[in-house]
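yo

u said u wanted the structure for the complex thing, so here. seqs first:
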Amino acid sequence: MNCIVLVKQVPDLTDLRPDAWDTEKGTLRRGVLDSVLNPLDLHALTLAAQVRRDPGRIIALSMGPPQAEEMLRDCIARCADEAVLLCDVHFAGADTCATARALGQGIRRLVREFALGDDYVILAGMQSADGDTAQVPPQVADELGIEQIAYAEAVEWRESLVVHRIGPHGKETVTPLVTPVLITASSSEAPVYRSFHRARMSLGRTVRRWTAGDLDLTPEQLGLKGSRTQVVRIFSPSESHDAECRLLDEPSKLAEEVTAAWRSGRRRKAAEAQAPYQLDGREPAHTGEIWVFAEHEAGALHPVSLELLGAARGLAAPLGVKVGAVLPGHQVEPLAAQLTAHGADSVYLLAHPLLEEFRPVPYKTALARAILERRPQIVLFGATPLGRELAPRVAYETGSGLTADCTRLEIGDFTREKVTQTGVLLQTRPALGGNIMATIVTKNSVTQMATVRPAVMKALPPDPERRGGVVPLDPGVTEGHIRTRVVARQSLPEGANLGDAEIVVSGGRGMGSKEAFDRFLRPLAGALEQALGGRSEIGASRPAVEEGFIGREHQVGQTGQTIQPRLYVAVAISGAIQHLSGMQNADLVVAINKDPHAPIFRHADFGIVGEYESVLPALVEGLQHVENKS
Amino acid sequence: MSEVDVLIVGAGPAGLASAIRLRRRLAEARKEASVVVIDKAPRLGYHNLSGAVFEADCLDELCPGWRADPDPFVKNMVPVERDELVYLTRSKMQPIPASLVPRHLRHQGDHAISINRLVKWLGGVAQQAGAEVQLGFAAGEVLQEGGGVRGVRLVDLGRNTRGRKQANFLAGERIEARVTILADGSRGVLSRQVTERHGGNRNSQVYSVGIKQLIKLPSQADFGAGRVIHTIGYPCRRDVFGGGFLYDMGKGEVAVGLILGLDWRYTDLNPQREMELFKAHPFVAGLLEGGEVVATGVKTVPEGGYYALPKLAVDGALLAGDAAGFVNMRKIKGIHYAIRSGIAAADTVFDALARNDFSESSLKGYRQALEPGVLRPMRSARNYRQCFKLGLYLGAPLSTIQHLLPFGLDAEPDHRSTRKRSRLNRSPDGGLDKATFVSLSGAAHREDEPSHIIIRDPAVCLECKDEYGNPCVQLCPGEVYRLREGELVLSPSNCMHDGSCAVKCPYQNIDWTPPEGGEGPRYRKM
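structre next:
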């Protein structure tokens, strides 16, 4: 079995020092940061070393500037046998679609040149540290017309290859029924090291370089020209926080302050409403309905779908168009009424037994067919694990631009080269490791697509009086679309319910170990619960989850959950925007970090600079003291 | 296992100079030999730290025509234009008239440089010359066989906190070399293994610790182009050997540093705190007003001088740069010696390659090669540092005639100077704290690896607590050592690899070993 590993060179966002940040422009000084192998791609490489079987080879494939060759040699020094770099000025400025097209074409050529036949697996990190869209791997799979297995954590060979992954309902063991297949890694047990003798060998290796011409691609299909999204504005994340962080020296003092603030019932101000957009009789750039993908599990709709219906109604009003919900599945008809009550004018039903459980290929086949038939102007997905797997493929197949992980959507005008696009979807999301916000528009697309973070938009109160139609459509799926089989399923050991918790105590990578989570965070959560009388839950930053300190169901921000607890305690969390966007609506934020420069302090109400090992036990003691006094 | 002809441990000025020189001489002679440089730093220069006011002439010999190189290092060199030596009292500043400044403390003609940029440039030159530079590989031990050095073994990779093998475990690789140049820096782990075995030094090596910060001044500030200031006096008590510096680095940045001889007697001396006191002195504070600390770092400087030099050539290996202790004690400068010793090592190895003989006798030409540029000036300063054992007021005048003394002055290891219950009792408040200091150094280690700082006997630390109050807690600028509920706990991931803790531990109970390659501080323009 051969492996093709998609790798990317990214700026090292783990070493953001003051001079790396251009505060005036609100951007990173790229030259200041090291360029490194994307951390999740390292996990993909590690899995590749386990998937590969003699006489198969591991081939690292990247698209990037000539400097990316250094990173490819790094891959050889770890475990890759060959390395190929797609390098051409025409590739520059590519969005995920244009990148996937080039990578897909590169893979086709690799398969020919190395005579891989069908005996290969493609591996990639789930997302890149800088772009952070998680769109390229699924879109490469779509370009090649193959199935993907996302969120892989381990692989092993039994009678055949099996992949251990985190599925929407817990841990899954999945086996691909056909190869090639694309596997995206969200972690691995222990990343493969560079060895000295391989590092020496890598210096003698030629890294092949292929240009657009070598891939039979024309400049129109590539780079900026071949892209379907465009960044129109970059800005610093606005200080959503009005209060300065009060740095305290004594944990006991912190215990008192937090208790007092909790009891005073502090609430954060709601975001201010904006003036509604008006077309004023102008011709909008897009026509058609606004659709929401109705995600459901175990017979219940995902809350994000209802939130998106609320958002869709807001977007539809100034455009004067209807809102549709697209509902794929088996025996899901009862959900239609709820979608109608929450704002759908029509529910497009894609009913088929093969859609009973989620698999990317059958789902995207059904959705793409419906979209190409009805041509909605906007389709919104929840940025849930499932949505992030599905939306990129639907967008790719329908030729639509897609923006991942939006936190704000609005209708607006956008002028470029003196041509104004009227009434388009302005999609705003955090980018570049979360240090900036970017507003993006879709171009060269009939349909504008976005995934939207859960718990950011507001669902409308259900209106049982609302009337809407149910429109059954032919999903067009067949047995041939089923290319993976789930061989085992195991529900996650503990059902973390972060969304409902009033108190969330989260730990970051700085906690250092799983043991530290248990030894330090849980007692604090318990003490807070005791002292304040709210339900508590343990949260975690993405790096902590990636390190395996705690399960992914505890992740706050990014692909994890967006929460609005009354009290949020961030321990050893630096506070990258991905994380902040998951918790910044908390009413009260407390930060404990040994690094006084950690951005988390800029978003906290109270903070202590110090080692969690000494602060947390003292804080627990302080809370007990406060509780005894009252 | 890997085999190379010439292995150079340490990609600093000494190691890279030897790689450049050797590859160029091989090319001139149309000979081929593999020259491989390894370093534990993830990138060129990341584990180097210096002031630095640099005597650039040594580069003329190494890289003729280098001044025309378009590299940022050459472009960013700041020629010294204003050279000041001042004496600081607690609140006043007294300039020392130029006529009274000893010749060795004048810096006209020198350049203020970033050693990180120097090393980055040298690394590129070495690679162009055909040397292999392999970064992120930490050597753990010298392969000593049959009384000689046969290469090195890298550290094990992929153990967890408890030392158990993880799935990605990679046993330390053997690199066998015909000859090894050990340029692993001040208190280098490998060069010390060789010195412990072969000795050769009259006196124990002694060290100072240098604390440095790079400060970005507000745009309207004018520090003075090409201005370098050296200070003596405050914050050092007269029985603490040390001094401060402020160098214009161009582009509105000033390098600020404090160097303290580790033979102080105080149990509670905290160099990072002393640095903040230095910065808070009205004279210094005035110069740095409104500035922002953008980078920090710490290193030790081997100060023992001539009498502390170990055996420089043994069967199969040479010692170069700080690893050997090549520092001009009167100037506290070592980069030019590092480069010159690298050149001398390369020339020695070149001849030995021709003979295919790397025995101690075949390498003995190294001393002669070092004689004019390194050993002779060091010999003339042989008693300089020892004079300051008498304190500043006696030591300074004595040091000016130290070369006339008909005998060598002894020096004891730094840790023996610490006196129980001798305290400075500085106020703990104000300025940059240690946590910030570490974060600005870029230091990072995998949190779940075994501690690379080994406490030989934890019971001794308890004894030390009663006797000395655990000086490591105060000393370490990285807050690696902390007391929690009366017990010493370690945060090895904060370590900046300076090794001053191991030098100063009163019981020599700390064993500093290299962590996995690629970790540690990340110095970029220090």
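The two ends of chain A are 66 Å apart (CA to CA). The longest strand of chain A covers residues 419-431.
cya
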